[in-house]
Amino acid sequence: MLQHLAPALRAIVGWFGLALASVQTAQADTVSVAVAANFTAPMQKIAAAFQTDTGHKAELSFGATGKFYAQISNGAPFQILLSADDTTPARLEKEGKAVANARFTYAIGTLVLWSAQPGYVDAQGSVLKTGDFKHLAIANPKIAPYGMAAMQAMDKLGVTARLQPRLVQGENIAQTHQFVATGNAQLGFVALSQVMADGKITNGSAWQVPAGLHEPIRQDAALLLPGKDSAAAAALLSYLRGDKARAIIRSHGYSF
User: Fold this and answer.
1) At 7, is the pLDDT very low, low, confident or very high (cuts 50, 70, 90)?
2) Binding-site annotation, residues for molybdate
């Protein structure tokens, strides 16, 4: 008797599975996310996992936080901002462009001095004082928090005046990393997440800048007004606080 029922039961279970998948697909939505350039690698992985686990899709745009602020202020329809700092989300909230009391710190960034050449950057960062390099890359400190942190670190080390003629500025931290990766700059200040995967520096040489040399790089998420009633936006913000996303974030050199 049970043998005769088995095919029918499998068919019923299969039908319910298809029905559930159809419901999830019908409820799935897309959320538009402005992502700080330093968070590119982890966010790409998180977005893929988010879509697999929830059915929602995160449409990602990467760039400098300062530029995103200008775009949002001018009406860009982003629903979530994953900022490279904590001041921009607070400012957007104060100006009524972000939902009040919805922002939170999704990661704390780490600044590193990096060269694509193995052994070029020493473990104490002494190369800043003794190296004969021609170019040192930093992100534009006026719009990029990692660039601002780099300037603060150089000021505290007392090397800003000497290094000023050698500085080349990237529009954002992604372009800054590209300058160093291509050899157009012998070294540069970048985000640890750009040169780390699975807890290891992927290539070249690096010095992790001590946190005391610059203000903490607290990276906050903001729910923007266009995302106020979006189920996908709410789901992504919740997902970012979950264990799976945090494991990915931590593996790229961030803390909380």
Assistant:
1) low
2) 65, 173
